[in-house]
Write a structure and sequence with these properties.
Largest sheet: 6 strands, mixed
Distance between the termini: 28 Å
CATH architecture of the largest domain: 3-Layer(aba) Sandwich
Helix content: 40-55%
Strand content: 5-15%
CATH topology of the largest domain: Rossmann fold
Shape: elongated
Structural class: alpha/beta
CATH class of the largest domain: Alpha Beta
GO biological process, one term: translation
Strand order of the largest sheet: 3-2-1-4-6-5
Main location: cytoplasm
GO molecular function, one term: GTP binding
Function: Required for a late step of 50S ribosomal subunit assembly. Has GTPase activity.
Keywords: Cytoplasm, GTP-binding, Nucleotide-binding
């Protein structure tokens, strides 16, 4: 699912170039504000100004996000909850991020980090725009790194996606699969699906109501997906429900927020 060699190389590049920046912007997924910080951020960035962007707020549970905003602010970090697709990223960056970045030698510079699929590439591309280009006369022009000129006195360093090299916690793995940050094999998708079903029963039964009215009579997630498949007419030869097609459709619609916003954790879960 993930590649420890690539991850270690990415972290090595980040450590090497940290001395060149005045702050770090961490882009997290608002559906999993702790799991999407699945890297050793305390070790990596402890001496830097840190700014957190909780992206994809249009797909999350805003009541839970308020708890996360409070949690991170109490740790001394600046926090912004937003959806990168809803506004001009560069204008936001210059209005809200630029003023809080420390300045050194008449210039402000920062690094943007994030695990796969949290929206970091979208953020970078929107910052670059049509007129912006990589800065070639500074360190960091290596594979997986690029400097971007946002304004005459603001430079941004993009970095490769990073994760823990080893993911031992199964709940963490399931959350990363559900937000699309980890590619998964069929068995791993099924495990994430069992996790999701139990989670929705406890936290968002209204979402299950929207998907299947009689879901409470389902013995398990397999029966739920089979009924869901029949309802959608995902049927194989012989009238057998197409479980794989139903599973993938259900996961995709949950991920896209079709039935409402979801956030998979709250700060007290960490403690």
């Amino acid at each position: 699912m993930w590649y420890p060699g690539h991850i270690e190389k990415a972290k090595s590049l980040i450590k090497k170039h940290l001395k060149l920046v005045n702050a770090v912007v961490e882009i997290l997924d608002a559906r999993a504000p702790y799991a999407s910080r699945a890297y050793e951020e305390e070790q990596l960035f402890r001496n830097k100004k840190r700014i957190i962007i909780l992206n994809k707020k249009d797909l999350c549970d805003m009541k839970k996000i308020k708890l996360w905003e409070k949690y991170y602010k109490e740790k001394g970090e600046d926090v912004f909850s937003l959806s990168l697709n809803e506004f001009n990223v560069k204008d936001f960056f210059l209005k809200y991020i630029y003023p809080i970045v420390p300045q050194k030698f008449n210039e402000k510079s920062l690094m943007i980090v994030g695990i796969p699929n949290v929206g970091k590439s979208t953020f970078i591309n929107r910052l670059k725009g049509k007129k912006s280009a990589a800065v070639g006369n500074k360190p960091g022009i290596t594979r997986g790194l690029q400097w971007i000129t946002v304004s005459k006195d603001l430079k941004v360093l993009d970095t490769p996606g990073v994760l823990y090299p080893k993911l031992f916690n199964k709940d963490l793995v399931n959350k990363l699969i559900l937000i699309g940050s980890l590619k998964a094999e069929d068995t791993e998708l099924d495990e994430a699906l069992f996790y999701l079903f139990d989670f929705l029963k406890q936290e968002y039964p209204n979402i299950l109501d929207s998907v299947l009215k009689d879901w409470e009579s389902c013995e398990n997630i397999v029966e739920f997906i089979e009924r869901f498949s029949m309802k959608r007419n995902f049927i194989k030869k012989g009238g057998v429900p197409d479980y794989e097609r139903g599973r993938n459709a259900f996961l995709r619609e949950i991920t896209e927020g079709k039935y409402g916003g979801i956030t998979y954790e709250i700060p007290s879960d960490i403690d």
